[in-house]
Amino acid sequence: MIGVAVNPNELGTVREFFELFKTPWETAVAGRFYPVVVSTVGQPAGIETALLIAYGSTESEIDRAALVKVKNAPGIQKADWAGASFPLYRGAAGFDHSGPSTLRSERRALDYRAVVQGRNCWRVGYDLFEEVRYLLTEGQPASYALTPTLDLHIALLRDLLTQSGVSFLEVAPHPPGYQFICCLTHDIDFFGIRRHLFDRTLAGFVVRASLGTLADLIRRRRPLAEALRNWAALLRLPLVFLRILPDLWRPIDDYERIDGRRPSTFFVIPFRGRAGVAPDGGVDPKRAVKYQASEIAGQLQAAADRGRELAVHGIDAWRDEKAGRAEMAEVAPLGGQTKAGVRMHWLYFASDSPGRLEAAGFDYDSTCGYNDAIGYRAGTSQVFRLPGSERLMELPIAIMDTALFYPRRLNLAHDEALEQCRIIVAHARRTGGTVVLSWHDRSLAPERLWGRAYDGLLDELDDCRPWFTTAADAVEWFRWRRSVTFTREPDGAVTTRAGTLRPGLPGASIAIHRHASGVLDELALGSSDVVRVNV
Known about the structure:
- By secondary structure, the chain is α/β, with parallel strands linked by helices.
- Helix content is 30%, strand content 23%.
């Protein structure tokens, strides 16, 4: 059991951190012995421990007692640890210390070990829970998108425990038998090219399918076979509008064909012609969509009957509780649901959005991601609780097609895009969590033809054998993992209790780090299980 000594205003962030690093902990109690105490308040009075891990970006009494000089570095600092680099957004403390260090910034150590007042101390020069709070509320800039910063904070603390010989257990962030969880999600912004006669969408399609495709072919960014498909689609266009040939944009059919037996989630627009209000208060007419869920109800209901999830592609839900309830009422019943998840159109969001979405009754949100990058907006691949809400969970987007391929975004070629995606998949294989793909409605069809990249990415994911599931089921699994509680018994053992797991969902694994023997054990954890562990 880890004891935690922090300021009262940090406790909310501490609780969320230890839902992600799911290991036994409690607020440190005076007079009780702990194998290890994690502190942000220096030497906590009256707390007995074999090891104190003291985080902080300013000089403390520990530094003065250890005769270690501290140099404060405000602003973003780069920390290097075990071959990985990650940013520290709230500043850091560098130490003039001649001993070994685990964490460094340029030429200065960001940690040291010392015996202070008879207690083994491991001093770490940044504010752990302030960094976590920043990641979960502000999020990372796109320049650090591919760095799983919060996951690395967890991994670093795990490494400090391991190096110190502390035995502990944790509930792994992936089901047993799977390396990670994968969700195939599809934002449906367009449904049928016939809805766009004589508008800017059709004009853009014609230009990109003709001259744009020729330019891509010349620059070797598109193979000849794809160019021929685009030009053939352009020639067929009059017959499509005359309803002699089928529509070019049939996203439900296209994705059910390529996703196959893998479950998937469709985020559907509730209302046609509503642009909604932007975060700056303006209204951009381009945001309005030319279809709504009720107009394609039959196709959506058929998809739901085949096991696909229907969720809301929200317009104003992010800023207005009443609008959120109305948007959910248009989509949820089509899937036979009383509630649904939401992802905001154009990823609009604000600091008070979690509370508004929760009040509207949404089951989860999946807006946390980038329009212009792929990676880890909140620094983690795990599902987390959104600050400002009591229960609303966030399923973060990892990979979005438009971010990869749009000319004014990353503008990557096929092979370059797969290379960036492999970085995210490799991290998931090491640490668990989720890989959430957002592939849009038109992306498999002419003129985009991004299906080759999607198919290649699916092949690579298949090789990793993840748990493919819907967004709702991924969130439900993490919600169940959060229900796991730990009780320290008088003899030092830990009793682990799990909540009731919905039928059909997999259980979890308890990893037991026994450092006295150097053995890592695993135990299965299922619905309503009670497991006693001696660590």
